[in-house]
Each structure stands twice: as C-alpha cells, then as structure tokens.
What does this fold into?
Amino acid sequence: MRRTFPCPRPLRRPLVAFVAVAGLLGPLSPDVGALPVEKAAAEANSATVFYYTKTKNWASTHLHYAPDGGAWTTVPGTAMEAACTDWVKKTVDLGSASGLTATFNNGSGTWDNNGGADYALGTGSITVKDGVVAHSDPCAGTEPVEGNKATVYYSTATTGWTTANIHYAPAGGTWTASPGVGMESACTGWWKRTLDIGTATSLKAAFNNGNGVWDNNNSADYALTTGTTTVKDRTVTRDAEDPCAAEEPDTRAPTAPTGVTASADHTSIVLSWHASTDDTGVAKYQVTRTGGTRGTVVTDIGSTVFSDTGLEERTAYTYTVRALDAAGNASPASAGATATTGDKAPEPAAGTPLGTDPRKDPIYFVLTARFHDGDSSNNRGGSQHTKSGNAANDDPMFRGDFKGLVQKLDYIKALGFSAVWVTPVVLNRSDYDYHGYHGYDFYKVDPRLESAGASYQDLINAAHAKGMKIYQDVVYNHSSRWGAKGLATPKVYGVRDSQWIWYYDEKNDGFEYDGLTVEPKSGKSYYNGDLWSTAEPSGNTCLNWGRPTGGKSAEGYTLYNCQWPSPTSGMFPKAYYHQCWIGNWEGEDARSCWLHEDLADLNTENTTVQNHLIGAYNKYIDMGVDGFRVDTAVHIPRVTWNRRFLPAIQERVTQRFGAEAAKNFFVFGEVAAFVNDKWNRGSVNHSAQFYTWKERKEYSADDGAAALEQFTYENDQGTGNQPTSSNAFLNGNSYHTPDHSRFSGMHIIDMRMHMNFGDAQNAYGNGKDSDDSVNDATYNVVYVDSHDYGPNKSSERYSGGTDAWAENMSLMWTFRGIPTLYYGSEIEFQKGRKIDCGPTCPLATTGRAYYGAHVAGSVTASEFGKADSASGEVANTLAQPLARHLQRLNQIRRAVPALQSGQYSTEGISGGMAFKRRYTSGATDSFALVTVTGGATYTGIPNGTYRDAVTGDVRTVSNGTLAVAAPGKGNLRVYVLNGPGRIGADGPYLK
It folds into this structure.
C-alpha cells in the first residue's frame, strides 16, 4: 500500500503554467540548441523542489511525487537534502512531463499533503512554505548547509577483528548496501567513521568484520546519534570523549611483586609470587635468575608462576621479579627467593607433543586403574577393599597401570583410535581414589600407576612412537578432602582410644604417604597418621576442637567435632579453599562452593592457588602430553579460566614447543549441563558453549570480584545476547576460514548430544541446535556414555542395543566433532550396569569393572583400524560386531578430510540424519555427502563424480541433485566428490 491517507487523482496542469515557465526561460541559446534533443528536453523538464522545515521541525524530510501522467514513487519517497538554513531540497527528473504532483513526510508516517489535495508543482525552482507554492530559489546567495554528522568509534579490542565496517541507516532513510562502509583505524583497538546523515539526527547501525561475522547488538541494532559516539562491548556512549585523543604519558610503575617463593624439584625450580598492581595494568613480569655457571638470566613471563627447568644439580639459585606495564614502566625488584636443586630426575627426557589438528584423532577413554594390569606389584585395594566386596573378587581398585596400557596400545590402534584420554595421573588420597579425581600431590604421578620401565613419561613416549596422542584428565577445581600437599593440608581431630585405634594410625614422622609404599607400623599403604592430631594444632580455626558432638557412629563410637574435613568446619584456610556447600546448581555458589565432601573446593581466584596449579600442570606439559581434558570446568568462573589458567597453558606450550604446538594443544572442558535445553535452565554461566568464548568486557583486577561481576553481567545479558559463530557451518557448499579471534582456548564435551544419545536422531537434532552458540563446534568431543553417566543422566552404561550402538557410532564418526568411546563399549562391556556405586558394591559389578580379561593375549597393529595379528581373547574382542564397525568407521574417517575437520550444512537436503561437509586447505578440497540409516536427497550440490566410501557406488551429478536410498539401521553412505571410492571391507553394518 502506497500510503495511509486518501490521494485524489493527479490534476491536469493548466497550459498557462507551462507558458509562464517557458517565458521565464527565454529563447534557447545556440549552445543549448546544439545539445541533443533528448538532453535538452530532460534539462528543461526537471524540478528543484525546496521545502521549508522550520515550521515542521522534522528530523528528516521525504518528497513523495508522481510526474504528470506517471506513477508515484514508493512510500515514503526520496529523502531531501539540506539546502540552506530552514530549507531542504530535491531535484527530480520529470522526463517528458510538464510538472508533478507531490506530498511531503518525515519518513515515519507524518505527512503534509496540502490538506488532502496534494501539491501541484511545475518545473524549475519551486518552493513550498507552509502550504504556499512559489517559484524561486530561497538559497540563492547563501552558503549550502551541510548535513548532520555522526562520528562513530567502534572497539575491536575484545573481538580481535582486523578490520571493521559500519552498516547504517539514517532515521527515515535506507540502509547502506551490506557490508556497509569501511571504518578507518583510529588507534589501537578502535575504528572510526564520520557519517553525513543529512537532516536526520539519529541512525541505526550494525558492525561487521567484512568476513561474515557481525555485531548487531544481538539483532536489536545500535541506536546512535549525531556528535561523537563510542561502541565498546555492546555499550554505547553518546557525546563521548575521543578514545584516541592523546593521553598523558603513563609514568607510574607497578608495585613490586611480593610473596616470592621458590621450591626445587630435582633440577627444576618453581617460582611463584603475588600479582602486582598498576594504574593501567601489568603487562608482564621479568624474572631474573642468578647462580650456577651460566650467569644472569632474565626471562619475560605473563603469569605469576614460572617453572625453571634443566638447571644444574645441587646448585643454589636466587630469583627476583619485577613487574612491567604496557608503557615499559618497571617496578622495583622483589625480595630475592633462593632454592637449591637436587640430583637430576631419574625420569626419561621429556617428550614432544605430536602437535597436529586434534580433529583428526578419535579418542579412546580409559580409566587407567581399571583397563589392563601390566604389573601386579603396584596393585592396591585401600581401606575399602573388603567392605566394597572387591577383596572377594580379588579385584583391587588400583589394578590397571601404565605398563598395562603401554602393552595394549596396539589394541587401541587396531580399533582405529589415535588419541587416548587417561584419567588424572596425580597422586590421589581418599578411601576410594582409583579414578584419580581426589588429587593430593599435584606435582607427583601416582606410584600405583607406574612401574620400572613404565612411568607416565614412558607411556607418553610409547604412544607418540605409534602416532598416538595422550590427553591427560586434569582437575583445577578441587583437591582431595585432605587438601593439597604443598598448599594446605588440614589437621583433623583424632584420639587413638579403644574405639578409634583401628582407624587412626600411629604417627611415623619419617614416613611420607605415596599410596603405594606400606608404612611399617600400620602395615598399610593407606596410612593416615600424618592427617590427625589429638592436641589442638597451632593456628587452629576449627570450632570446638575435639569436643563430643553428642552423636554416635554406625558402630556406636563417640563422634567428635573437627573429626572430618568439611567446608564449614573451619579446618581449611579461607584464602585457599571455599567455605560452603553448593545450594543452587545454576547459581553463583556452584562456582564457589564444595560439590562433595571428598572434593575440597579450591579458591581458584587466589593467586597462590593459581600458581600452585599452574606450576603443577606445567610439569605435565613439559612431559609432552598432547592436551588436557578439564574436569568440573563449569565450577570455576569462565573469567578465571580466561585470565589465568588457559593463557598459562598456551604460554607454557608455546615456550616449550612453539606456537604451532600450542595451537593444536587440545583443551576440552567438562561443563556438565544435564538438560536438554540449549542453555542450562536459562543460566548462560552454566552452559557448555559459554566456556568457548573470551570475555566481552573488562572486570575488576581482583579475580574474586571479577567472578561475581561476570556472573551478574552475563546473567543480565541473558541467553539472547550471547555471541554466535558460523565457524561450524558451510556457506552454501563452500568452506570458509573460521574466525577464532574470540575463542577462549577451551573446547567442550558435547553434553547436549551425550544427554540425548538414547536415540541417534534426537542427539543429532539437539547437537545442531547448539552449534551457532559454540565458538567452533567442529572441535566438540562427542560421546554416548562415560565413567559418570549414560544418556539422559542415566547412572547406567548405555544399553540401547547393538543396532542402536552402531547407529550412534555411524553418526559420531561422520558428523562434526571428535568421536570418543568409553573403554569396552566396543563390545557393550557392562551394558546396563550401574556406573559407580562407590565402595558399597564390588567394582566388578559396575560400569568401571576391570577390562583386562577382554584384551588378554597378543595384538599388533601398524595401521589405524587394522590388526596385523591377534591371538587369545583379544582376537575374539576385535572380532565383535561393534569392534569391526569401529575399525571401518575409523578407516573411512581417516581417509576423508571433510569428516575430520569439515564444516557442515543441511541446506537443500532431505533426510533424517543427512548433511554435507567440506574442508578446504591448500591443495586439499574434500566434499562429502552423508546419510545415516535413512535415505536422503541432496539438491544444489556441485556437479561432478561422487563415489561412496562404503559401497564404492559411483554417481555422476550433472543437475546438482543426488538421491540416496536408505542404507538401513546403523549403516551409512558417504558420497565423496572425486573421492577414492570404497574404503575397507564390508562388515556387520557398513556394507
């Protein structure tokens, strides 16, 4: 509809009007007469319309008109431009018409249509002022009035964009053509553009990087005004100061670092200190080392912990630290800290990570202590050995070890896996700690896992020699209930009276707990004499030390205050440990309180705690592990990850192995969101995808305050105002370079697919739904079940049946993400069994049962997905339907790059689980069409020859369409453009 008010038919213009205008023009000059007839006519039949704005005071003015005998312009017409004070104008070409009918409006529904009669105008210069039409130029002899100006500054400091465009529309006007107009670099992190918006006094705008990544204020666009405006982290500041104006030079130095401590471990020294403060922020620290024969050494570092390795034996080294800001101002040197090295460590030289794209490597997940026993001398049952029922099965909780894992690497390789995820390796301490999540000494590998010739370093080296990666499970959130050695270990009340002598071991000051060595007085490897005290310890903060509580144990024994560690007991130093239980699992307390009595929640916002953990995990980085699986990642604020732990990982890997190795060091977090929603019950702070992004704004320098600020800010932003990404998606059929400029450094376990794998179609639909909120979902770690849960938060191992397992695997191995399998699922090991029941039932009856019997015998593999030889029970295991299915899936995935690293799309595709994937890099261009179980039709695809990797079927596409019949449950088709054809031999499902 053209407009909202009635419009009378255009009036025929009186002839006298034309004659009058012609008389004013006079006879044509020879020069004009020399012009082509058409051009002279056009110039004669134009009209410059002036409109008086002072009375209306509109922000913008539009001319809506129809040449005599012609059609009306589209509402609201054409925008008029500033002419001189109180006047706007527009020159229109009338063609052969001798006049025009016109109305005026403000572009927002307010009109001047001459009381419903419209304005009848002629040619030449015409004025319309308060309803009166005249023929003159009201601006003759005056300077033209410039349009209103809007100067816009846009910050890319958070996004990291290397260019910026502004796409805008003045109020009442039209949008610029996408992507808008380029902005100019103004100063570091800021881009600028001054816009002429005519008579408008405001505009709407969005910004983009010119490569498809937009900031449109979460679809609301930005409302800007004239003058100078800044846009930073979605915050608009009007009448802003020029952010690039010259500032007073920064001459204030940071404060000197304090609390510098140094501790030696063999020929390495770990140095840590408290963070310095500065008015503009500390940029880095300089560590100066003296001592030894190598002279003075100065090292720059970004964190507050430094691991100095490869030092001389039995040598004293002294360290001082200075803080520097971005302007180069240096603090005074700290007080010195000295440590003396010991003998060189007996471990082999550190390994080197393989450093390749982690998406190429399917992951096999093992509980090391439950996989395969290569050395029975390090088996340990612990204090719950008999009570749990493990003793009756001759099945100690610590049974498998690194030696057993090294012996069966060829089994894992024969299945086709090129990465092994191992449970935490640090020394644990609890009554039931075989799984590794009760860390006590983060700097020491648990001796119950090591053997002569089969240390953790030996495992890493052996895996690398076979082209296999080791991903180490790491815990930053909590320690054991007994604290963390070297940080804080609480003393509990204990009296060795007639009731409790069975529990409290006699103190042996010359003995150090390592979980393996038997303490001679007690005869136990799970000795606890160093943990308790009858006398109240110096500095005790636990209330009512040793007083009876009035309660009794199950055995009828008197219970005492301070007898058991807990967050509210006061036994843990507040600086190092949080002091509460979680009450709201989607609240802030889920990130700052205890999960369980066995998991003492570390105060990860404390510098000393951060340094302790960074220093510990630097050790394992130095050993050459290929990545970290991060346990309980959601229980640490994202801002703490982004500020401290993730940069420290990147810095250490870069320092030791180079930038390319750091790029491919794979960190994937367990953000346990056990819901089917895209956002975890509406809480962005507790949703998996949230952890893949950098911060969007600056918070307080204090990490504790920053955590609270971030939680509030992001919850206020809501789920609709979170960053989005196209990194996992094709543009039509084309691969595009992903934008990782806002990537945090942490990828995620795909909890939403995991939750919905009761049915593959359901998992597929749910997974796709979240991908635009993940920085790059092609790195998602995808599994059906694990050592914690099955689908739908089931407490049992998956028991959907062999056909369903095959279908799940076919989807996992072809859809985006990195397929991951929990040990034994290749034979449906312990299906339907409760995964974990603690020491209340034997491990043999659970989903964490010992697997060694199924891999007994001999196996060798020189290629992934194929056994060169196998004998004994392991040969039977490899012959099982799902094991054979996995072998071929891994062969196909390894041969088709699109299935490893490709972006995907479902555009133009019919079918239940059907998609197309493409990966392009250098000479590699891999394009694949996939359908799982059901049939599919693909339209709009590139023409050419497609070969199915499963059957070898060849299709020639000439009309952009390919139809595929349903292959059947668990089966699939993978048609690859110019592909290799059939890969591997038919199996129970792929055929």
Notes: The CA atoms of residues 642 and 744 lie 6 Å apart.
